[in-house]
Amino acid sequence: MKNPIEKLNKVFESRIRLGVMSVLVVNEEMNFKDLRQLLEVTDGNLATHLNVLEENGFLRVHKGFIGRKTHTTYRITPEGERAFRSHLAALEHMIRKLE
Amino acid sequence: MENKPSETLSDIRRLMERSSRFSLLSGYSLIAAGICGLAGVWQAHREVMQWRMHPGGEHLADRLILTGSLTLVAALALGYAFTWGKVRRQQVPLWDAVVRKVSIHFAIPLFTGGVFVVGMIYWGQYQFIATACLVFYGLALVNASHFTVRPIRMLGLMQLLLGFICLFTGYNLICLMLGFGIMNILAGWLIQVKKP
Lengths: 99, 196
What we know:
The complex is a heterodimer of chains A (99) and B (196).
Chain A: H1 15-26, E1 30-31, H2 32-39, H3 43-55, E2 59-66, E3 69-76, H4 78-98
Antiparallel strand pairs in A: 1-3, 2-3
Chain B: H1 5-20, H2 27-53, H3 60-90, H4 97-122, H5 129-144, H6 151-169, H7 172-194
Helix pairs in contact in B: 2-3, 2-7, 4-5, 5-6, 6-7
C-alpha cells in the first residue's frame, strides 16, 4: 500500500507556511503587515517562513518603497499554487481514509 | 505531523475566508441607512407637495438636492457607525486588507455616480438623477459583493432593476423609496437574521 503521507509537501508542515499559502491563493497579492496581522505572528517568525517559501519558488517577492519605508508584497507563483492544491488534495485523501 | 488533517483543513478554510471576505458588515448598518432613505424620500415628497401648492416659492431643485445630500451623509455616517461598533467588539483591526478591498471596490462606482449626478445638476438636467443614484449604487454593491456577505449582491441587483424601472416609468420617488429605503432594510434584516 502506498504511504498516504508521501504526497504531503514537507514545506507545508509548518502551520504558518500553510497559512501564508492559504491567504495568497485567494488574494492576488498581500503585503507583509497584512500577512502578519492575519496570521498573528511576529515579524521575525513570519520573515523566516516567507524566506523558505520563496526559496522553494512558491512565492514571488516584490520589494518597493512607500516614501522611505519599505513596502514588500508577496504573490503566489503557479508552482506554489500547484503545490498547495496537491497538498490539500492529499489532506482530503487522508481524511477520507480515516473515515 | 503537527496537526490532524481535519484541523489543518479548517484552519486553511478560516484563513482563506478571513483574508478575502469582510464578514463583519452589520445588518443594522443597512437598516439604519434604509431608515435614512425613507426619511429622505418622505421629506422630498413633502417638498414636492408644498411646491405644487405654492409654485412660486424657493427653487424646488435646490431643496431636493439639499435633502438628498443630507440623507446620503446621514446614511453613510450611521451605516459606518454600526459596522465600526461590531468590528470593535470583535477586536480586530478595522482597516485591514479586506476592508481596504471592500471600500475601494464600493467607492469607485459610487464616486463615478456622484460625479455623474453633480454633472447633471450642473447642466440643469434633473430628470435622471434618481435613476443614476439607483444604478450607480447598485453597481457599487455588486462590485463590492465579491468581498463581503452574500445578500449584498442581491441588494445590488435589486437597485439596478429599480433603476431601470425608474428610467422608463419616471416614478422617481417610489423607486427611491423602494431602493434606498425598503431594500436596504430588508437586506439588513436578512444579514442580521442569517448570522449564526
